[in-house]
Amino acid sequence: MTTSPASGPSNRPAAVSWIYLAVCVVLVSLNLRTLFSSISAILPEIVAATGLPAWGATVLTTVPTTLLGLFAPFAPALARRFGTWQVLAGALVLLTLGLVLRSVPVPDGGAMPTLLAGTVVSGAAIALANVVLPSIVKQDFSEHQGLMSGLYTTAICGSAALGAGLTFPVYEAVGDWNLALGVWSVPVAVAAALLIPVILRHRSSARVSTSTTGRSPLTSPVAWHITAMMVCQAMTSFTCFAWLAPILRERGIDGGPAGGIVAFSIVLQMAGSLLGPVWATRLRSQSWLNVAAAVLTGGGFILAIHGPLSGIWWWTGILGVGQGALTALALTMITLRSTTPHMAIRVSGMMQGLGYGLGSAGTFITGQIFATTGSFGPAAWLFAASGLGAATFGWLAGRDRTIAD
After folding, report:
1. 87, 123, 184, 309: which sits with the fewest CB atoms below 10 Å from its CB?
2. 4, 139 in Cβ contact below 8 A?
3. Domain of life of the organism in this record (predicted)?
4. What is the mean pLDDT of residues 356-379?
C-alpha cells in the first residue's frame, strides 16, 4: 500500500503552529450549524412576514440536511485534487455567499427563491466541510485525536447554540428577519480569512490520497455499522435544530424563552460532545458509551414533547447531553476505526453522505406530521425508533475492530 502523503512525519505542520491549526478548526466548526438553528429560531416570524406556505417551511428545514448527504461524496475527490485545508477554505467562502444570498431582501411574496437558493449553496458548503474535518484530525492531530474530535464537535454544537440563542434577540433588536439571518455570514467570512496562511503552507502537503485502489469502505461491515449509527443520530440531531423551537412554542412557550431553552440544550450538547470522544479514545470498545448516548437522546426528545412542562429544562438538558455525545461519538468512530487519513476521508464521505442523506428524513417526517395532524406529538414515535436504532448500531460500531486499507 502506498502511504498517504499527509501521513508522513515530514509533512506535519511546521511554519504554521499546531495551536493555530487547532484554533482554525474550532473557529470553522463554530460556523457549521448556524444555518440550521438560526432559521428555526425565527421561523414563525418569517412565515408571518412572507406568507411562506407550510410546505415551504418544511422544505427550508429539510433541504439543508439532505444536501449534506448529496454533496458529502464529492469531498474525497476534491481533497485529492486540491487538498483538505483548501477544500475547507473553499467551503467557507461558499458558505459565506450562501448565507448572504439567503438573507437578501425581496419584494413581498418573493422570499422563497432566495431563501431556498441560499440554503442550497450553504448546505453544499457545510457538507464538504463536514467530510474533510475528520481527515484533518487524523492527519494533522494524530497524537491528539480524542481532544481534537471533542473540540471540533463541541464547537459544532456551539454553532447551533449561537444560532438558536442569538437569532431571535437580533431579530427583536433590528426588526428585520433578513438582517437577523444575514449576520451569520460575518463570522464565516472571518474564519475563511484566518485559513489563508494555512492553505498557503499546505499547498502540497494537505492532499489526501483518495484512489479507488485498495479496499472500499462499502465492503466493510464496520463502515456500514458506523453509517447506520450516523443515519439514526442525524434523524434526531437535525430535527432538534429545525423543530425543537417550534415544538416548544407549540407547547405554549414564547419565542424568546423557547430560543433560550434550545440554546441551553445545545450548550449541554457541547459538554456531551467534548467528553464523549475523550472517553472513547481511552476505551478499547465504545459500545456501552454509544448505547448510553442513544438512550439519553431518544428519551430526552420524547420527554421534551410529552413530559410535564414544568420539567422542560430537565428534558431538553437530557436531550442535549445525549445528542452532543451521540453526534461526537459517531464522528469519532471514523478516526478510531480507520487506519489512515486515506481511509478516514473515504469512510467520512460514505458515512456522512448516506447518514445525512437518509437522516434528513427525520426532519421531513416531523414537518409532515405537524402539517398533517397539527401537532408534533406523534413524532415521539420517530425518536423512539431512531434512538433504538442508534443504540443497536452504536453497539456494533463501538466494538474493537478497524476498517483495513
Report:
1. 309
2. yes
3. Bacteria
4. 85
| Sequential DSSP letters for 89-124 | HHHHHHHHHHHHHHT----TT-HHHHHHHHHHHHHH
Q: Residue 10 corresponds to which cell in the numbers above?
A: 515530514
What is the Cα–Cα distance from 252 to 123, expressed in whole angstroms?
31
Amino acid code (one letter) for 352: Q
The mean-pLDDT minimum among 202-211, 219-228, 255-264, 266-275 falls in 202-211
3-state helix, strand, coil in the chain (%, to 5): 80, 0, 20
Residue 291 has pLDDT above 90, yes or no: yes
Identify the bridge partners of residue 338 per DSSP, sorted by sequence position: 403
Give the CB-side neighbour count of residue 25, counting CA atoms within 13 A: 28
Model pTM score: 0.75
- Would you state the pLDDT for residue 288? 95
Q: Which residue has the cell 411574496?
A: 109
Averaged over 212-222, what is the pLDDT? Answer: 74
Other beta carbons within 10 angstroms of residue 257's beta carbon come to: 13
In this prediction, residue 214 has a pLDDT band, given cuts at 50, 70 and 90, of low
Mean pLDDT of 289-309: 94
Q: What is the pLDDT of residue 403?
A: 82
CA–CA distance, 56 with 62 (Å, rounded to integer): 10
User: Checking phi first, is residue 214 left (phi over 0); if not, alpha (psi -120 to 50) or beta?
Assistant: left
DSSP 403: B
Rounded Cα–Cα distance for residues 394 and 82 (Å):
33
Under CATH, domain 14-397 is a member of which superfamily? MFS general substrate transporter like domains (1.20.1250.20)
Mean pLDDT, to the nearest integer, of 278-285? 88
Q: Which residues make Cβ contacts (< 8 Å) with residue 249, sequence separation at least 6?
A: 44, 255, 258
| Amino acid occupying residue 10 | S
3-class secondary structure per residue, 273-325: HHHHHHHHCCCCCCHHHHHHHHHHHHHHHHHHHHCCHHHHHHHHHHHHHHHHH
Residue 343 C-beta-side C-alpha neighbours within 13 Å = 24
Task: Report CA 340 to chain centroid distance, whole Å.
Answer: 23
